[in-house]
Write a structure and sequence with these properties.
CATH superfamily of the largest domain: P-loop containing nucleotide triphosphate hydrolases
Number of helices: 18
Radius of gyration: 42 Å
Shape: elongated
Strand content: 15-25%
Strand order of the largest sheet: 4-3-5-6-9
Distance between the termini: 129 Å
Helix content: 40-55%
Largest sheet: 5 strands, mixed
CATH architecture of the largest domain: 3-Layer(aba) Sandwich
CATH topology of the largest domain: Rossmann fold
Number of domains: 5
Amino acid sequence: MASSNVMEIVVTSGPDVGVRQPLAARLLVGRGADAGLQLTDLSVSRRHVEVEPCKGGARVTVLGRASSFAHGGRLCHEAVLGPGDRFVIGETSLTLVRGRQASVAADGEITKIEALLDDAAVEARGLAALFSLGEALEEARDRPAIDEAVRGWAARALAITAELKRGRALAQDDETSCRRLAADTWELILPLRGVETQFLRVVVEARSLGRELHRLLAVAARMISASLVALGRLERARESELDLRRMALGSATTFLGSTPEAERIAQLIPRLARSDVTTLIQGETGVGKSFLARIIHELSPRCDEPFRVVNCAAIPAELIESELFGHERGAFTGAHQRRMGAFEAAGRGTLLLDELGDLPLRSQPKLLRVLEERRFERVGSNEVLSLEARVLVATHRDLEAMVLEGSFRSDMYYRISALTVQVPALRDRVGDVPLLAERFLADMGPGLGRRVSQISSAALEALQAYPWPGNARELRNVLEHAVVLGDGDTIEVSDLPPRVAELARPSRLAAQEGMDVRLPMPLAVLERKAIAAALETCEGNRTRAAKLLGINRATLYKKLKSPASS
């Protein structure tokens, strides 16, 4: 029977629990076949540590590039253990005991149970710390906020120092590195998967360093990595949205045109966008009042908030207050549930009250009170809500004349007209028609199934000669008509609606290069020569020739088949 003075190494947890080995001389511990204490734990190196008896205990030393062992709450490369001391390599816990006595097994079992209890407590603390980190990361909305969340979490939950650093964690591999900074301080560098430009740096006291903390930090690094990757995707999405918004605003600016009237409006827009004052936008139907309001919103500090439009002319008089202020359930017949009104739905964004001139006279006092006090209540409620949105107003009516005739309140007019923008009619800036037409065609072409690259000079002259009573909206409708009913990549006069096409100058249709016509001559001869010249000019394309002659293709085919044309 072994002497009670002989030290033994006992496996107290792990795959090889219960295995023991006397320590009479140097003992190699590992997975290799040459190990004196051979373990089956795959997380243990083939030659992991060497245990050597010494006065009062044993010295444990890491061999080669094997990972550190945990002892006394810290990672070690070398340590002296006394009887009853425990150290951990990989997933295996080993205890140094003295002699093979009956009580030793019991001590071993107690050690194992204590280890399991310690691990459970550490696991609970670790889970609580990870929940805390998850909450901190969830509230972070940008990189500085994530940095602060990590620092605060580490100090509060773990009483250690942790920070995100720029650069690559390791030059060669993707493993955690650990180095001693001072006698009682260690530095851990943890890579962040999927984030090559940052890593997690942790500074911890030696007494707090152990396998459990290693595992906790590894999981924390994964969570931080996921947050940074998600934030990167969100930032790229925001950048793409911003690029699209810039493109849209660029298009909007060109939509306004280059005439002095358009440039005057363009110069006002940035000033209006910077202000929160209620602004009145006046102009005929179809001039683009809603479009101008959207540009003001997109250029304002409120651009990330909602943009809401309420068409006052399209809402029944008895529902105006419900649409604007919202209502509570049961406030009136048909109010089956609470409804949020436009003022509330706009939040901190922009609310456009379109066609305000059509707002019933009896509804104007309540709206005026909201604009004055910036407060309102839902219909059927006494709860006071705050108006946080910026309000824009648009109308095609002459409000001053309405005030004089008594159909619009004077105090309401003075309240909304502090800033007034008069959008000119399209007939007053016909020089912008080519630019507007080009922009409209670029937007509508793909959706209408025809690619149009240009407008013929005759068609463009007709567009500029037309008075446009429906303004820009009518121009868009005319171009949609031309794109849908026409052929080829050019809009010709024959593609335009008759009311517009008839304004094209006749000389544009009759004078074509290559026509050798001598008058007087019989009509049939003149027609035959005109068809031949048109076909020659259009290189035999009958569709284009028909357009050039101002007739449809069916008529051209009939004339070509008739004996007079042969």
